[in-house]
Design goal:
The protein has 123 residues and is of the alpha/beta class. The protein has one domain. Helix content is 33%, strand content 14%. Strands 1-2-3 form a three-stranded parallel β-sheet.
């Protein structure tokens, strides 16, 4: 069956900061991911692939909802280091079914959020 994990990134932050990588992908579209304050203690050379698009079947986040998640993280991380990503893919779990039309709409909202944020933060 599907395993569900909850909890913030705080307990593993020390280990993340020791990784010899320049890009981290972090799921952050649900409250289970924890508080955005964790980003202030993350190495400042990481590019962040921010999971900001929910993948729950039947729910499409608006561009403004997505942009709002990114803004909260941008309080702690230079927005130029943030790459917008969906959380973990569009079939989270063995029983999840997400239609192509719904996937398209989710990605369309992600693109619109990116345009909103570029206007706010610049390229």
């Amino acid at each position: 069956g599907e395993k569900r994990h909850a909890g913030g990134y705080g307990p593993i932050l020390e280990h993340l900061n020791r990784l010899d990588y320049g890009h981290l992908t972090m799921e952050f579209s649900t409250p289970e991911a924890g508080d955005c304050d964790v980003f202030k203690d993350l190495r400042d050379d990481f590019e962040i692939g921010l999971g900001c698009v929910g993948v729950t079947p039947g729910q499409v986040d608006s561009a403004e909802e997505i942009a709002s998640r990114v803004r909260r993280v941008a309080e702690h991380v230079d927005p130029k280091r943030i790459v917008l990503n969906p959380d973990c893919g569009f079939a989270p779990g063995s029983g999840a079914v997400v239609s192509l039309d719904e996937t398209y709409e989710k990605l369309k909202q992600e693109v619109l959020a990116g345009k909103i944020l570029r206007e706010e933060f610049g390229d």
